[in-house]
Predict the structure.
Amino acid sequence: MTRNADKSEQIVETQARALLEACSLHFAYPAAKNATEVVRGATLAIERGTLAALIGANGSGKSSLVRLLAGILTPRSGEIFFDGEPLSAIEPRKRAMRIAYVPQTINSVFPFTALEVVLTGRSPYAGRFRFETNRDQEIAREALAAVDALHLAPRSVMELSGGERQMVALARALAQQPQCLLLDEPSSALDLKHRAALIRHLRRLRDEQGMTALVVTHDLGLLDPAFDVVLAMRCGEIVARGAPAEVLRDETLAEIYGDAQIRARRVFDRTFVWSEL
């Protein structure tokens, strides 16, 4: 069999496995008539049961891309597919049963308890004028327990730290019982202990439930060997994709971040990344 034939078969196989795909996405915020595109032809495929990371410098388009994938934003051009179906053809309630999005922060001006916030993740399953059931309560508590936050259930979210709110937001997403999690910098407000715990939770969801997740992160030290694949953005485009050890290299990171002082070294089967002072 020729090399080209091998490559063609690999592409077909990847497309068959892909749960979430984006093809030539373009997007600009409509603040100005001639607004600069923040996503410029981004193309990606996330296979089922994959823990994927999205990295890149500030302003590279990562958060905008994830919002597009979640259906929160609509691309100027290009298309997104979920399980082979155009995302635009999936009505919002059903989409919320399949894809859960976790923003960088959750804000509340009302003194909802953590449990009440997590219960809002059950809203896609509720009919009109239907209140949550005992089963919804059970699922919400299981979601909090899954992220070691069940003790927060009776507390007002207005009393919680940024890190605690982030764990509640993740539990809310889990309560949706989605096939795919999209997380925008979920570890930004977490201390070292809870960052490591978050990654363990995601790995367990992948291994035990076949969960697919795409995580936007600046925390490069968490990627190897925890993640299956790393995608890198620069100026609105996906410029690199591969296993963590393949992407986390001096020359690749220097291009992604525009910093020739970035260093990456693999020690004890882990990759450590830093920038020279």
Residues 1-15 have pLDDT under 50 and may be disordered. The longest strand covers residues 18-27.
